[in-house]
Amino acid sequence: MNEMFCDIGVCSANKQGEQLCGDFVEIVNLEDGSKIIVLADGMGSGVKASILSILTSKILSTMMANNLSIEECVNTMIETLPICKVRKIAYSTFTLVHVHDHQVADIIQYDNPHLILLRDGKHVEYNQITEIIKDRKIFKSQIQLKENDIMVLMSDGVLYASEGKILDLGWHRDEVIHFLELTQDVDFSAKTISAMLLNESLSHYGNHPGDDVTVCTIKMRKRKSLNLLIGPPENPDDVEKMMRFFFSRDGYHIVCGGTTSKLASEYLRKPIQMDNTYMGENIPPTAKLEGVDIVSEGTITIAQVLEYAKDYNEMNSLYSEWTYRKDGASQIARLLFEDASDITLFVGRAENPAHRYSDEKITFQHKMKLIENLKEQLEIMGKKVKVDYF
């Protein structure tokens, strides 16, 4: 397994009054492990711009995935896109990044704000070669990637922020770079970086964006494993096997559920100590167990983690909650969303007798559905997720 992976986070906001975004980001995972990321910005706004950007990103990513040249890609894009009746051009700008083996990034840019590269928290210039294709000026670059390198792609709505609102001029590239440098933290995920830049851009618009605004961040990170155990096995004879598999794996270890944590305690021959220091409004307290990173209650806590995950994959508006709080759900969310790349869920199928007559929605079927939904949301984040049932 390659030690590096692409952490990719996208955040968008529609132009004020528009229901559709004129920007679109397409991410393609190839069989050889490489990735193609295209951020396209369609001319204008609304339905027309949305169609243009989707077509552009789909055409470029599909053709590049089939090893066609950039000349063929651009020619096809120009011939395929609908023509503007007023300007007589088929117009959509784009930024394309092809990451090979998590070590090299080929970058192709046309009329979008140029990609910003951060290394060790500081802006780094990179070489660009200009090529004219069908009267279009295309910029081509190749970057040798290092751990924690950050590539920020954006639509021009970011740079036009505040025009006609608070300031007389737009938010310039140098100011965007300065903001990114000031706010960098080695632990921030790509999604968090995108959300922070988007929110800052929207604040310059007075939260009434005059254009579609999209940020796509690619961060090169080391792979980290996380193992989450929830529920005892269906067959009590499998407890030893389940615990042995769980604790033999490298990475973080999270144990969820009262019965499950008791079994883990017995397996490790270590005592559980309750920790009532940090509690959310509706989140049960955590506990401490040597050899385990987080010990929490089960279904209620995971249900809250799932809500955070759904929000994270959309606007990430609850970021300030789970990032700073220290209850069990927030702690688990931080490790799952921002630290882990490879996640194994160890799920026990035993039904808790206490839940059979409970008024709460914590039945066995509900727990299984929670796990399925959480897996789905984590995969949307780009995580590798495996579920082992016992």
Automatic annotation (TrEMBL):
Pfam families: SpoIIE. Keywords: Hydrolase. The keyword Phosphoprotein does not apply. It comes from the Bacteria. Residues 5-220 form the PPM-type phosphatase domain. InterPro entries: Bact_Sigma-Reg, PPM-type-like_dom_sf, PPM-type_phosphatase-like_dom. The keyword Translocase does not apply. This is PPM-type phosphatase domain-containing protein. It comes from Breznakia pachnodae. The lineage of its organism: Bacteria, Bacillati, Bacillota, Erysipelotrichia, Erysipelotrichales.
